[in-house]
Amino acid sequence: xxxxxxxxxxxxxxxxxxxxxxxxxxxxxxxxxxxxxxxxxxxxxxxxxxxxxxxxxxxxxxxxxxxxxxxxxxxxxxxxxxxxxxxxxxxxxxxxxxxxxxxxxxxxxxxxxxxxxxxxxxxxxxxxxxxxxxxxxxxxxxxxxxxxxxxxxxxxxxxxxxxxxxxxxxxxxxxxxxxxxxxxxxxxxxxxxxxxxxxxxxxxxxxxxxxxxxxxxxxxxxxxxxxxxxxxxxxxxxxxxxxxxxxxxxxxxxxxxxxxxxxxxxxxxxxxxxxxxxxxxxxxxxxxxxxxxxxxxxxxxxxxxxxxxxxxxxxxxxxxxxxxxxxxxxxxxxxxxxxxxxxxxxx
Length: 347
Ligand SMILES: Nc1ncnc2[nH]cnc12
Ligand SMILES: [Zn+2]
Prior knowledge:
With 347 residues, the chain is of the alpha/beta class.
């Protein structure tokens, strides 16, 4: 069995995936037509060509502008359902999805429209494919803390259906310390909390996210490697990192996959997970990310199993469901055909 075949069948969870970043070019064009939204690209090929980024901000400019094609509940439903079908095909058993409501409500789309469409797709995916999912709302960090607090208040009617809150968007210049009160209130109301940190920003932002925001996971966390004391804290507390390798390559956070920090973070004893971030923009779903890391970093079968196990350990899921998923990984690893890491010597 090849590593790619092994990865394809490996049960896994995905914990860092933005719904707005999963609109495939074909659906993007169809939604623009359906909603009469003018866009600059006529074909899928033209759109794919535009997906070339200098850094995080150059991506965010296109990403936020692209949100204009999402207008009705059915649009959010279609995008979310398409992603969950694609994830199911990658043997994702559980997905925790990010959505940034401010990018929609600021354009006049009601929060209820955004959430009801998304929840309908999550319910359908569970019914039809057995894939479970949760929704985490992200505050945009270039906006004020008051706006983040307004989002938390506006989401009250759906509190029972929401998993948690997080922080996304332009990192440098918008440190976690800007959102201390927002995170305090999220925790007070019983929500799980996560934050993007250490993608383009320094290790100090990861430290702030842990010590000031008390997040339960760090989204990205690459720059943690620059601070040995921080690494020890992350390892000791087993604060999971949701790492997004192909995203890092596309946004020039890393120069090439063979220098990606994933393996060094694992070797430092951290609970590392592999995720796709914005799969339609970055050229790969979760299995593509596992495959790219395996090929570039020479990850062993044991390392792939550890990454998949970490994805469930880091997930906000009931203990019984987690135990069942971990048992499924162990059974798969036991029964899957042998995979020899090194090429066999010629006879
Ligand atoms: N990679 C990323 N970093 C920060 N915010 C994002 N929103 C969507 N993708 C993101
Ligand atoms: Zn992200």
